[in-house]
User: Which sequence fits this backbone?
């Protein structure tokens, strides 16, 4: 019965952690089988795409990837991963389990990667591709990584990590294309890409296989240890307490600079007309105005700030990380790694290719190391030329104004830079103000914006 | 050339021959003979006094004593300025006293190594006196002489606080002499084969008494060549191979421990790894080398509350040949040396651990462990637990087992060399001499003074640092993996927690698998560990024997108190066949 299958899949997706449409009324409008991972039974491991349509937006559909392990008899050991039982169009009555929980099923995925070698391996419509240079560990167990939000990650022993995209969009996934380019260029500051899976039509990227870093810690967690230290010594400045993050921040800055320089090498440097960029930003402001009426009083000033961008004319732009924050960095025993090049997930893929802001190459990344509501401990500014660390004491004012605080001498002469330093926080505050008014970033952003343009 | 292999005393170290790799599982204890126990009331510790205290050291659970120099010396560098390689300082006792001491230690199963200063002598050594007054005589070429002070100018100056140059003018010989350390310590000339013979002869003198080995002082500097830093030269390694061959042939089972204060990648050369006939990579120079950078990194990691300073240096530590072992330490008789950290890290260490400028010495910090750690017992226990569980043989420093303090008002590094504090009585039970006669004054401050910190009080107190140290040493002794096992950094979700595995599979197939988890933060911390390698096994806490939950597929959650640590042994539950346990790769054999 198709209905039974659709109902079970819908319930499964709606209760999954990675489901993006929580709280919205959705229906399954179609299920497409991309193919089987291996020609085997019990489990028969397939990749299905489930198409959802939402009641509040009936013209749009979303595709979710659901890899399934299909068994003819119930598998009690996988009870926690049970999706449903139904009459499968190919196999008849089956018991379906979420494949990422099943070591036998994931073993079939790994076996395909091992077989793929250096040339793409095709069996049915699923293509497994490998990069040269790493011999995959074979006889290792898979373990589902428990911390994931929007995707599912599976570790293979201590060798590799499979990241399975859940919500998929046709076209190349930038996480794969960028990791591919950076890995081939030998970048020391990304996790090496070992391979990926795609469906040939499109192409449609489904999953990527990466280096597993056993000793890694989330950069955000690491920064928090430093902040904890600072708070414990309330009367001391950041550089006086043992846990000062400045040295780590400098190393992180070097890592980001290297990655961005390599991205410029690999993807080239383009130009963008700032007038067009200003127009796009103004367009977003109009959207925000509909949601946040309080913006009205500041809209003219914000627009004027954006308009000043137009004076910059054509600017060099390059591909950058696009969603860089400390949660996208890993500290390992071999230094910092920058991860997750998907860009801001809420944006359509086309927008992510060049940063929509076309940020100047002069100032490609600014990372602020600041816990929620806390004082900034360090700021990392990274250009393609050199990174620098500015400590909290050197720019002690509130968040919004900090970005326009004087830089050390000799650094603020450029009119381009001055213009950006005013524009970026304005844009950020405008964007954040559209979040629900109960959300602190929402109302704080309004205050900050008022100071910026006031 | 020398008397070889003859056992002059009755203290044949037969175990050294039976167990040639004894040093890999040994816990070393550095003891300054002049500061440990004075048996004759002259104010200076001596070998008879050391014999009196051997039962204490045996009770504590150390395996090998390291005795810094006690040779005849003008004592301008703590005895490292040797004026006679085969005689002792009279106040420390006679050569016969030393012989009795070695025998008494061996009776208790404790081995003994002594310092041997190869690079230089005192300017009071008869060889130097002969060399300066009789340039054409038999010792004329024993030292490095030059008509000008420009040769070897690429060699750095080590004691930057006191020495402007590595050359000093000798008004007698009317030439400059070369010295890498103090200007009263001329470097021996290793280009002269007679110097080799003289040194091997001096080593035999002590090995014949049954001594178990030498710590070779300042080995990287033996040779000098123009246009080089004068460190780690190939000729230096060639000479060390000669020493090793000499020891292996005549005194098998004795150990050579190199002090080469260099980066691990350079230090590893002092093991002299070479492929033998069977294709195994074996050491041909020193059996052991000190791993210098580990120590400052432990301090940095705890101060920063994150594991990366330690994890990184261990990641950068190269593999070492078979039959070799690192020596690691927290503190010793020298300053806490910061040569092997970056400038930035050195500034950091000075700022954090040497707040008073008097605490600095050369490029380091002259303090004992307890004052460095603000006398915090929890930190002292954590540091000791790290020292005893990281790869390498640990070297304890006398007095740190009771948390002794230092005296930064004494000159040079004497502040960390004050007499051992045995009792709260006169002279801390160290000596019956007039207190003014002691060779160094006792620590008297209200926190660390001997009335507050002494062995007698801590022996009577079951929860003292001393009793804890003894318990942990005895726990370590039961597990060969601490000395022999592989090391694997386990990472983990929390950067403030350092977790690692030590795994050893013996020749008979018995497994010893240990998990060590250390909270480097002053606050309680949770950590989720990826222990899939041991799925289905059960950790049992080593000190209390409490079984912890079975390791499953999910991350293993542990919580630790501030500066807390756990040592677990990883066991296979009964009824679970070993081959059904995943991750049992046996790759450590």
Assistant:
């Amino acid at each position: 019965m198709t209905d039974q299958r659709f109902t079970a899949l819908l319930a499964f997706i709606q209760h999954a952690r990675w489901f993006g449409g929580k709280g919205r009324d959705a229906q399954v409008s179609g299920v497409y089988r991309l193919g089987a991972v291996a020609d085997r039974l019990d489990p028969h491991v397939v990749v299905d795409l489930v198409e959802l349509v939402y009641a509040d937006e009936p013209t749009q559909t979303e595709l979710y990837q659901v890899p399934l392990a299909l068994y003819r008899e119930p598998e009690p050991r996988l009870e926690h991963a049970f999706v449903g039982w139904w009459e499968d169009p190919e196999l008849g009555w089956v018991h379906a389990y979420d494949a990422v929980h099943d070591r036998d099923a994931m073993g079939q995925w790994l076996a395909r990667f091992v077989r793929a070698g250096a040339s793409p391996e095709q069996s049915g419509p699923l293509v497994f591709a490998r990069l040269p240079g790493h011999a995959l560990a074979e006889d290792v167990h898979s373990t589902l990584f428990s911390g994931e939000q929007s995707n599912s990650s599976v570790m293979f022993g201590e060798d590799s990590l499979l990241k399975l995209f859940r919500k998929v969009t046709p076209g190349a996934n930038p996480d794969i294309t960028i990791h591919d380019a950076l890995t081939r260029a030998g970048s020391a500051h990304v996790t090496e890409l070992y391979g990926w899976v795609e469906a040939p039509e499109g192409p449609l990227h489904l999953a990527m296989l990466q280096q597993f870093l056993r000793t890694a810690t989330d950069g955000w967690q690491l920064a928090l240890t430093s902040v904890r230290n600072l708070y414990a010594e309330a009367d001391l400045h950041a550089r006086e307490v043992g846990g000062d993050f400045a040295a780590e921040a400098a190393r992180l800055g070097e890592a980001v600079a290297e990655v961005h320089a390599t991205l410029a090498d690999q993807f080239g440097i383009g130009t963008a007309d700032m007038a067009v960029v200003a127009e796009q930003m103004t367009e977003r402001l109009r959207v925000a105005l509909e949601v946040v009426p309080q913006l009205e009083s500041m809209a003219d000033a914000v627009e004027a700030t954006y308009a000043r961008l137009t004076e910059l004319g054509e600017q060099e732009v390059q591909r950058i990380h696009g969603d860089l924050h400390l949660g996208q960095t890993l500290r390992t025993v071999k230094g910092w790694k920058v991860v997750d090049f998907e860009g801001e997930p809420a944006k359509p893929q086309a927008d992510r290719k060049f940063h929509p802001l076309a940020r100047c190459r002069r100032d490609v990344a600014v990372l602020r190391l600041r816990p929620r509501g806390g004082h900034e401990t360090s700021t990392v500014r990274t250009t393609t030329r050199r990174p620098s660390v500015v400590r909290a004491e050197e720019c002690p004012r509130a968040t919004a104004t900090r970005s326009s605080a004087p830089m050390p001498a000799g650094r603020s002469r450029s009119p381009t830079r001055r213009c950006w330093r005013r524009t970026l926080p304005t844009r950020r505050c405008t964007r954040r103000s559209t979040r629900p008014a109960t959300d602190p970033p929402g109302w704080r952003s309004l205050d900050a914006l008022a100071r910026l343009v006031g | 050339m020398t008397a070889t292999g003859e056992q002059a005393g009755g203290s044949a170290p037969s175990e050294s021959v039976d167990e040639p790799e004894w040093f890999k599982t040994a816990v070393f204890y550095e003891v300054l003979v002049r500061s440990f126990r004075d048996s004759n009331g002259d104010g200076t510790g001596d070998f008879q006094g050391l014999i009196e205290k051997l039962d204490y050291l045996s009770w504590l659970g150390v395996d090998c004593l390291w005795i810094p120099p006690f040779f005849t010396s003008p004592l301008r560098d703590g005895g490292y300025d040797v004026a006679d390689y085969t005689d002792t300082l009279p106040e420390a006792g006679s050569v016969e006293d030393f012989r009795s001491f070695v025998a008494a230690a061996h009776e208790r199963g404790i081995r003994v190594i002594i310092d041997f200063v190869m690079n230089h002598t005192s300017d009071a050594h008869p060889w130097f006196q002969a060399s300066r007054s009789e340039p054409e005589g038999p010792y004329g070429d024993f030292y490095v002489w030059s008509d000008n002070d420009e040769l070897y100018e690429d060699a750095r100056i080590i004691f930057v606080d006191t020495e402007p140059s590595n050359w000093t003018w000798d008004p007698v010989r009317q030439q400059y002499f070369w010295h890498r350390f103090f200007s009263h310590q001329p470097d021996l000339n290793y280009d002269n084969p007679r110097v080799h013979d003289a040194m091997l002869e001096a080593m035999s003198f002590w090995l014949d008494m049954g001594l178990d080995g030498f710590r070779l002082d300042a080995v990287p500097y033996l040779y000098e060549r123009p246009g080089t830093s004068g460190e780690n030269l190939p000729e230096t390694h060639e000479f060390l191979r000669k020493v090793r061959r000499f020891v292996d042939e005549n005194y098998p089972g004795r150990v050579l421990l190199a002090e080469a204060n260099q980066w691990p990648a350079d230090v590893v050369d002092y093991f002299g790894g070479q492929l033998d006939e069977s294709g195994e990579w074996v050491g041909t120079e020193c059996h052991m080398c000190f791993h210098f950078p580990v120590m400052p990194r432990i301090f940095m990691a705890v101060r920063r509350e994150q594991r990366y300073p330690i994890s990184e240096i261990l990641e950068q530590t190269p593999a070492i040949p078979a039959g070799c072992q690192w020596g690691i330490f927290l503190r010793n008789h020298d300053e806490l040396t910061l040569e092997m950290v970056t400038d930035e890290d050195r500034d950091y260490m000075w700022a954090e651990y040497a707040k008073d400028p008097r605490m600095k010495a050369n490029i380091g910090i002259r303090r004992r462990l307890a004052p460095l750690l603000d006398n915090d017992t929890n930190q002292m226990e954590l540091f000791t637990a790290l020292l005893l569980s990281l790869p390498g043989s640990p070297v304890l420093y006398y007095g740190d087992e009771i948390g002794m303090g230092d005296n930064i008002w004494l000159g040079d590094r004497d502040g960390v060399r004050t007499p051992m504090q045995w009792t709260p009585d006169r002279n801390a039970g160290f000596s019956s001499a007039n207190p003014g006669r002691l060779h160094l004054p006792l620590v008297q401050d209200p926190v660390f003074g001997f009335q507050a910190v002494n062995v007698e009080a801590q022996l009577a107190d079951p929860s003292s640092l001393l009793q804890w140290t003894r318990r942990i040493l005895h726990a370590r002794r039961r597990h060969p993996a601490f000395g022999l096992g592989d090391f694997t950094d386990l990472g983990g979700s929390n950067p403030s927690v350092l977790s690692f595995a030590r795994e050893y599979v013996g020749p008979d197939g018995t497994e010893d698998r240990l998990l060590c988890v250390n909270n480097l933060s002053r606050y309680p911390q949770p950590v989720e560990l990826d222990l899939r390698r041991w799925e289905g096994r059960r950790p049992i806490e080593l000190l209390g024997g409490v079984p912890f939950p079975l390791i499953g597929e999910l991350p293993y959650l542990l919580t630790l108190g501030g500066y807390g640590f756990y040592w677990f042994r990883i066991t296979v539950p009964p009824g679970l066949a070993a081959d059904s346990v995943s991750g049992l790769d046996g790759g450590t054999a």
Q: What stands out?
A: Residues 296 and 338 of chain B are 7 Å apart (CA to CA). Chain B has a mean pLDDT of 90. The first strand of chain B starts at residue 28 and ends at 30.
